[in-house]
Amino acid sequence: MTVQIRSFSDIDVLDIIKLLNTTYQNAYEFSPYTEEGLRSWIQEGKLKILVVEEDGRFVGSAAYHDGHWGEEVEWLAVPERPDRKAIEKSFVDKIEKYVKGNTVFTAVDSGSPKIAEWAERGYKAEGGLCHLTAKLNELRPVPEVPEGIVLRNLKADEEEQMVEAVNSGFGFERLKLGNLQTWKTDDPPFDERWVQVAETEGKIVSVVVAKPDTNYNKTFNCRRGYLGPATTLADFRGKNLASALTVRAMNLLFTEGMDSVGLFTSEKNAASLTLLEKVGFETSHVWKFMRKNLP
Questions:
Q1: Exposed (0-12), middle (13-18) or buried (19+): which is 71, by Cβ within 10 Å?
Q2: How many domains does the chain have?
Q3: Sign of the C-alpha dihedral computed for residues 40, 44, 47 and 51 taken in this order
Q4: N or C: which end of the chain has fewer CB atoms below 10 A?
């Protein structure tokens, strides 16, 4: 029998969806892959998909993605068979050739036996991503901020200021003009009211974005909100702005009928984890980043 890796073609879409839904069905908060969702992701042009076939029959798939957290092995899906590890190694070797930078990583559930398999391929655990959640059952008192700083909702004509503040706070381009309209389309009833800002002397200096957790709510028939990471300009950190805006965002979600809220933050971001624990968040899940330095 001949096993061969090749690039994805359109005829593979349904086989890939079936495989991914079988492989990851027991994953944390798994939301099933759909044809529409996969095709949309492919059209963005950031996903490189490979498939392996045996005598012309689809066997498995892997994908590479250059995203927010870096260059990543997005999935590695091969059914259990005697040569599974060998096929997966061939996939990984192939994907590493597409990497443009010096490192590549993948995210694996903390405690998973897959961590050992990635270690065998030369990957080391370096940090991770935490999913934190909190219950929303009452309005919470908003922490005090220094005099002269106003906490409020974003106004309709302030998207450019918001984008500038967020990107300056993070030190890289996290948002683009047009994101507000995308969120309005994809996450109703989102509008500018769901964006909390701190302003001083006419300048936005801190931002927290709240949205419905749309995919989760559709999949599990729930009412959970989502918070993007708080960002504050360097000169205004340490003034309680992120805490205050986070609580304001949680209160807005509560008034909009959400009964819980989730967000993601780096396992290494001790300051963020401490802040979030103080306002009622608990860690629900952790993914370890398995990273490899390439020649």
A1: buried
A2: 2
A3: positive
A4: C
257-283 pLDDT tens trace: 999 999 999 999 999 999 999 999 999
Give domain status of residue 57, yes or no.
Answer: yes
Closest CA to 60 of 25, 23, 97: 23
| Same domain, yes or no: 147 and 253 | yes
Q: Considering the chain, what is the average pLDDT of its residues?
A: 95
- Residue 45: what pLDDT? 77
If asked whether residues 143 and 251 sit together in one domain, one would say yes
The CATH number of whichever domain residue 220 belongs to comes to 3.40.630.30
- 33 found inside a domain: yes
The answer to whether residue 34 sits within a structural domain is yes
Digit-coded pLDDT (tens) for 209-257: 999 999 999 999 999 999 999 999 999 999 999 999 999 999 999 999 9
Question: What is the token pair recorded at 20?
Answer: 């991914």
For residue 112, give every residue at least 6 positions away whose Cβ sits within 8 Å of its Cβ, in sequence order, or none: none
